[in-house]
Amino acid sequence: MPLIESPIFDCEDLSVFTDQERSLARSLHADGFGVIDFPDPEIDARIERIKRNLGPVFGIPLDDPAADKTRGSRRIQDAWQTDEDVHAIASNPVILDLLSKLYGRRAFPFQTLNFPVGTQQAAHTDTVHFSSLPERFMCGVWLAMEDIVAEAGPLFYVRGSHRWPIITNAMIGRRGYGSELASAQDPYASAWQAMCEADGKVAEPFLARKGQALIWTANLLHGGIRQTDRTLTRWSQVTHYFFDDCIYYTPAFSDEALGRFALRNVVSVSGRSPKPSTYLGEVVQNRDLRTGASWKSKFAGDLKKGLFKRKSP
């Protein structure tokens, strides 16, 4: 499992970490998130170019200070494919080395999201959208591209929620494989809410300043607070990262107990190349994962061969 999520984290050897890295590792382990200044001397110039290049795509009157900024499109996915500054932020070598050190496997970015305003998204964890086997080898980095005020609908997180069990389809009694959902996170909302209430957890806003970045773990509950001033922008970039030698899939549309996985076709943003799912170095494809039917057939055959025997009472 990731170093920062290890149950024996307090016994792990962090001697190769700098003081800053050690403090960040402890924050990620205890709270599920950590804050850093984004390590790029050109970050201000990149931010301004991204705003200029992507701004017209959103269909928002960004130049009118009195206009409602929430009426247009709220995000652009994978702008790294056409915007070199988005690509450079996602592929920042210092961030890649840092995440690799914190997790114990080599990190690579696989998705970018760019926002001109807040998402106002309900509390959720990324584990229902993208996960890995082994679990938890996924994280996000959210970069503030301007100073964020409370009225702009800031990002929020639920401190320590990453330590809760990962909610799966099996736990909430639904079938995921082959299903269709308007929102992949909706089926799990009541479970997350119940856990917050039982544990007395509340959402905390992240009032970031321009150039700050929040690193969060895969199972941390987070979202966007309601925007009370619709004339404000809240420019940001999210980059999601996986780690080497894992199976990459979408749990919301999978039934792990039956061997039915919605595998993701992952591309490394930094390398601009496919990253196949692997298990202990062996490439895994959909045909390698058992369907419920093939598993049942194999199990029935093994029963006939006497490989499974009923124990006497």
From TrEMBL:
InterPro entries: Phytyl_CoA_dOase-like (IPR008775). Its cofactor is Fe(2+). GO terms for molecular function: dioxygenase activity. The keyword Oxidoreductase applies. Keywords: Dioxygenase, Oxidoreductase. The keyword Oxidoreductase applies. This is Phytanoyl-CoA dioxygenase family protein. It comes from Erythrobacter fulvus.
